[in-house]
Amino acid sequence: MKESINNYEDLLEMLDALLREPAPFWNEFYTDRDKGVPFFSNKPDENLVSYFEKEWLRPGKVLELGCGPGRNALYFSELTCEVDAVDLSETSLKWATERAKEKGADIRFIQKNIFDLEIGEGSYDIVYDSGCFHHIAPHRKMSYIDLVSKALKPGGHFAITCFIEGGALGGADLSDWDVYRKRSLMGGLGFTEEKLRTIFKDFKELEIRKMNAAAPSSNVFGVNGLWTALFKKNK
């Protein structure tokens, strides 16, 4: 492995190596499909469903970041969206592909680090992230915002679900500097409403709220401990 820092990208990759869970970690995470992880259920996020019901979102071309086993990608596809769904884990995408075949869904699954994606300017109507952002280290925050902004068409929408700071699912209460002092994301960073508003200040805020809990019998996924937010790229 190259260990010289000669440019900004080399610096980012070095910091990634210190903090990011590697692909083998996520492959192992998704190996046991019966271990009771809530978001292993094959249901779309309740907030995502609400965006379409309220007609805040309409079918279009979608980029999903960190798609996992594909539950939200399947929902987009059912609504006739053209879907590119990205995840680092080969194991999760195998599961997602199986689910898509069962439904006859045409989804393009991509195994890649999201920061290695080659995306044309303004390629997507919607960028969706359910549970990826809180695993992004602070030094990648600007790269993440640039990725979302580049991917979206003017007037396109960006939606996210992420850990509430100190919430029921964890959500580490750390400053950006503390992440490097501890050399750990502590299982995933937590956010406040104000932090989300500040991070995504260059987008128009449409809604920031806590995810609504859903009963096990519900046809949507909803748990305590997550923020949901919807933003719009300025034209």
From TrEMBL:
MF terms (GO), sorted A to Z: methyltransferase activity
Pfam families, A to Z: Methyltransf_25 (PF13649)
Domain named Methyltransferase: residues: 62-156
This protein's UniProt keywords: Methyltransferase, S-adenosyl-L-methionine, Transferase
GO biological process: methylation
Domain of life of the organism encoding this protein: Bacteria
InterPro entries: Methyltransf_25, SAM-dependent_MTases_sf
Name recorded for this polypeptide: SAM-dependent methyltransferase
Organism per entry: Cytobacillus purgationiresistens
